Amino acid sequence: MNDILFYLVKKLLLIIPVLLGITIAAFILGVISPSDPAAVLLNMDGVSTPSAQEIANKRHELGLDRPFIVQYLSWLLQILHGDLGVSYITQRPIWDELMLRLPVTISLASFTLLLVIFTAIPMGVFMAYKNNSKSDFVLRTAALIITSIPAFWLAILFMWIFSEELHLLPTSGYGTVVHLIMPSFALAAGTIGTLMRLQRAALLEVLEQHFILTAKAKGLPFPMIIWKHGLLNSLIPVITLLGNYFGAIISGSAVIESIFSLPGLGSYVLEAIRGRDYPAIQGYVIFTGLVFVLFNFLVDISYFLLNPKIRLGGK
């Protein structure tokens, strides 16, 4: 119990400077923005032209005339209280906007992750089992090809085939699992190819270990050796990739969400960028950075549970 507590505390302490760096990066985004946030806010109606005095007054109201370090510390204190600010466009709290769209992105990310897990891992194991055979060569080639195809190109191809030609799937919208099929396949394809090759390589490396040779010497069937002894020990790099991938989907699915008109976090930040809604962009960076760090922390915990060397104090 003390070992896992020490391990968790150590990892949590390492997270603090990462989160601090994320807040600094998000703040700098607002500082180096090409437009004055005060002028952007006063021009939201698209009609009025604010005077220099009005812009100066608005800058003072927003605290933009203070030194940068004072602005950052004040903004950081606001974030620590759970306040990400108010959107220029909707005039609603950014936290509420993110929470409204988060279920859509979580659904897309979860569906995509399940698709990757239940496709790539079994195929990677099969490739290792058929190592250097014709089947292995064909699957490795296929994995390399699908890894090289951009997700947005696949999305357009899927829409043309399954929506325009076959009329099987909707091109846009959200509400049922059917709406997630094409976006999930488009997002998953490249990672499926990468994970197939990674699972194959990791399992082949494990199969060269001494305990596998012992299991073979005992006369255990090779499929049993793979599934019972080899697979679990080969999952560390796979889980690392999956943890980072899930966080990456949540923070980087903007293009796919835009193509399929999914009202998730990605489409929200694209609208914020188009409207120069700097508080919304900063809030998005903070939130998705926090999610990414959280999933990396969960991956670290999985290391502790899966790898006995870590539980015993090894590297």
From TrEMBL:
The chain crosses the membrane at residues 12-32, 106-129, 141-162, 174-195, 235-261, 281-306. Gene3D superfamilies: MetI-like. The keyword Cell membrane applies. InterPro entries: BPD_transp_1_N (IPR045621), MetI-like (IPR000515), MetI-like_sf (IPR035906). GO terms for cellular component: plasma membrane. Its main location: membrane. Keywords: Cell membrane, Membrane, Transmembrane, Transmembrane helix, Transport. Residues 102-303 form the ABC transmembrane type-1 domain. It is found in: Cell membrane. It holds the Pfam family BPD_transp_1_N. One of its GO terms (biological process) is transmembrane transport. It is a multi-pass membrane protein. PANTHER family: DIPEPTIDE TRANSPORT SYSTEM PERMEASE PROTEIN DPPB-RELATED. Belongs to the binding-protein-dependent transport system permease family. This is ABC-type transporter, integral membrane subunit.
